[in-house]
Amino acid sequence: MDVSFLGGPRPQRGVGVVAPFDFALDRELWRWIPDEVSLHLTRTPYVPVEVSLDLARLVSEHDTLSEGVRTLIAIAPEVVAYACTSGSFVGGIAGERAMCEAMTRAGAVPSVTTSGALLEALADLGARRVALVTPYTVSVTRALEEYVAEAGVRVTGCAFMGLTRHIWKVPYREVADMARRAARRGTDCLFISCTNLPTYDVIPQLEAELRIPVISANQVTMWAALRRLGTRAVGPYQSLIDPAARNGPALPDVEQQQEGST
Predict the structure, then answer these.
(1) Which end of the chain lies in a sparser environment, N or C, as judged by fewer CB atoms within 10 Å?
(2) Rounded to 5 degrees, what are φ and ψ at 213?
(3) Each residue of 213-240: pLDDT tens digit?
């Protein structure tokens, strides 16, 4: 069969992704990607450590990240993303910036991390008060709270699962239940942490129910990376991606309610 009339394949733009060795949600990342963009994933080397602050430090060492980026150079991505929340907040804001600098030096391309993308997304949404949902243990969750507070964002509520493995197996129902527990009146935004926690389909449901923007680790990572390409992520009925979805009524501020009742 003569296929010369097809003229393809179409040009593609590449986003390189460095993920921890146990990352299991490649398919979810692709759901935010427009047709003209391809994802190129690589993983950090395996280490026999459960999800913890120790693991976060191990998978975010500069040499490890730089080597991951170098494995992607041959396919020439236009931006590189480090898809790990705990690995990119464990060193605080200065540590996150240093990771981006190390990746950019290794690949000569712009770089983003999940935790850096989180702060970028909060700024884009104008959110100064955030509720947090994590699958982590208490120590890892506290480190996330400290990272957000360092950026001048107030944590209004928090719920965590205490998991140290198999986070990608958590069902949407449990994610939604944790979000309801964390949400408080007066919250500007709810963030669901961990790139290994499934979130894509639950975001619109929670936004409709809680009436605030709901963002997640994988969502902000892809959104920020695609921003560097001058293009937009795909995510119907998600406030971060679709500005029209930001126009719903907000929950009243609990402090204003209390003042009005005195």
Answers:
(1) N
(2) -60, 140
(3) 999 999 999 999 999 999 999 998 999 9
